[in-house]
Design goal:
This protein folds into three domains: 115 residues, Alpha-Beta Plaits; 193 residues, Trigger factor, domain 2 (Orthogonal Bundle), CATH 1.10.3120; 100 residues, Chitinase A, domain 3 (Roll), CATH 3.10.50. The protein has 15 helices and eleven strands. The strands form three sheets. Strands 6, 7, 8, 9 and 10 form a five-stranded antiparallel beta sheet that branches. A four-stranded antiparallel beta sheet has the order 1-2-4-3, sandwiched between helices. It is of the alpha+beta class. It starts with a strand and ends with a helix.
Length: 448
């Protein structure tokens, strides 16, 4: 096989591939022999069909298929080995191939259009000054997390007077002759849908008797009423009148005081030993979580900065549009001008980011990807106030995430971004600025 690459201009080239009979004949012969072994033709035993008949029936189709497979393999080998910066994929020049006679010809020349990547030099050094935002948690955020930890170490206590959120235990009696009686019935009036019914329990004390209508209180919810009244769902409608509830016990969940038990549960034994350090540690926790957002914003700013610095890239839009159209799902709408332009913008950033990764010698291995998966898992636990998650649990969750192909691909890209961001932070001059969550979100929206 012979390859000839001729640049048309800075954005495209013509790749010519000449294929001789010697390049494909053995492949065709092998495939025809396979056909002969499997062919089921009346009058011939399996494997005994004359090769001449096989060639007559299948020769041209097999020849075309093997040449096409050979083309696909060798073209991409040539492009890779010669380090041709191609965008998309080679597109056959149909007018040139129209005259090819696959049945009769033995030597073939195929021509393809190739879109070439633009030439540019993306550089970042200490002369490049970029903002880096240190997001500060609000007092309300810290207080909310303090309360969450205190709640987690809280306990149920018996009290004398009902307040919203308390749990009541008592005897529930239907106000009709031979009505339902449920002893040790348990309910939380705060879950009632009707505010007037809920208000009947305000300030109730042990041994008080409260008259209410469960059907009205729970908005005729069959599941809730069936559970409360201890009857089948189909029987609920027959008990839609008033009931009395004799209070025998009131239980309240009380958050823990801020003590060493809470501190240890949140961050491990003796990591913090007083409330001031506890709040400071929570603030650090928020700031560490926010650093991911700050890094993301930095990458957005680098994209905007370099895109402007390098100027508009020149592409062969005709070839790229044909590539995009060819990759459309069957039945999908044609690529609009707006979507095409967005794709070019994304392509520009992709090329810039790839070049930066090469210059910074960014390499990602399985351990890097696992660490990114663990960080994502740790953040998920942190959102539920679980800061001190065992390492083996994090690793098990992370490995489960990596079993999903799409998730793994996203995490690999994230691992590249993590290393690239760190390289960028070391290369440029960062002007650090403390910023509120609200103001930071406004700045991110400006990049959208």
């Amino acid at each position: 096989m012979e390859f000839t690459l001729k640049n048309q201009d800075a954005t495209s080239a013509i790749l010519s591939v000449n294929i001789q009979e010697a390049d494909y004949s053995a492949l065709v012969e092998k495939q025809l022999k396979n056909f002969r072994q499997k062919a089921n033709i009346p009058g011939f035993r399996p494997g005994m069909v004359p090769m001449g008949l096989i060639k007559k029936q299948y020769g041209t189709a097999v020849k075309a298929e093997e040449i096409n497979k050979l083309l696909q393999t060798k073209i991409f080998e040539y492009i890779r080995e010669n380090k041709i910066d191609m965008l998309g994929e080679p597109l056959p020049i149909e007018s040139q191939q129209a005259g090819i006679n696959m049945a009769e010809d033995k030597e073939f020349t195929f021509e393809f259009e190739i879109a070439l990547a633009p030439k540019f030099d993306a550089t970042l050094d200490k002369n490049d000054k970029l903002a880096y935002y240190r997001i500060q948690p609000t007092d309300e955020m810290i207080e909310g997390q303090v309360n969450a930890y205190a709640q987690r170490c809280g306990e149920y206590k018996k009290v004398d007077s009902f307040e919203n959120g308390d749990m009541l235990k008592g005897t529930l009696t239907e106000s009709v002759e031979d009505g339902i009686v449920v002893r040790d019935a348990v309910m939380m009036p705060s879950y009632m849908k009707n505010d007037d019914q809920k208000a009947l329990f305000a300030g109730a004390k042990v041994n008080d008797v409260v008259t209410f209508n469960p059907s009205v209180a729970f908005d005729n919810n069959e599941a809730e009423l069936s559970s409360l009244l201890k009857v089948e769902k189909g029987e609920v409608a027959a008990h839609n009148g008033e009931f009395t509830f004799t209070v025998t016990e009131i239980t309240r969940f009380v958050a823990s005081e801020l003590n060493q038990t809470v501190f240890d549960a949140a961050f491990g034994k003796d990591v913090v030993t007083n409330e001031a350090d506890f709040r400071a540690k929570i603030a650090e926790q928020f700031e560490a979580r926010f650093e991911v957002e700050s890094d993301y914003k930095l990458l957005l700013d680098v994209r905007a900065y370099l895109t402007e610095k390098l100027g508009k890239f020149e592409y062969n839009e005709s070839i790229l549009r044909r590539v995009m159209e060819g990759n459309r799902a069957e039945g999908a709408e044609a690529v609009s001008d707006e979507d095409f332009q967005k794709s070019l913008n994304e392509l520009t950033w992709h090329l810039i980011k790839e070049q930066l990764a090469r210059k910074f010698e960014i390499k990602v291995d399985d351990n890097d990807v696992l660490n990114v998966a663990k960080a994502a898992t740790r953040d998920q636990f942190a959102q539920y106030g679980m800061a001190n998650v065992p390492e083996d649990l994090l690793e098990n969750y992370a490995k489960d995430m990596l079993k999903q192909d799409r998730t793994r691909e996203a995490l690999v890209n994230r691992a590249v971004d993590v290393k690239l961001i760190e390289a960028i932070k070391g290369a440029v001059t960062l002007n650090e600025e403390k910023i509120s969550v609200e103001d930071f979100n406004k700045k991110v929206s400006e990049n959208a």
